[in-house]
Amino acid sequence: MSPEMSTQAPAPELYREIPRAEWARLAAGMAQPLTETEVVQIRGLGDRLDLVEVRDVYLPLSRLLSLYATATKRLGAETAEFLGEETDSTTPFVVGVAGSVAVGKSTIARLLRELMSRWSDTPRVEIITTDGFLYPNAELERRGLMERKGFPESYDRRALVEFLIQIKSGVPEARAPFYSHMRYDIVPDAHVTVRRPDVLIVEGLNVLQPPPTPNDVAVSDLFDFSVYVDADPAHIERWYVDRFLALRHSAFSNPSSFFRVFADLTDEDAVARALGFWTEINLPNLEENVLPTRHRASLVLRKGRDHAVERIQLRKL
Question: Would the pTM of this model clear 0.85, i.e. be above it?
Answer without folding.
Answer: yes
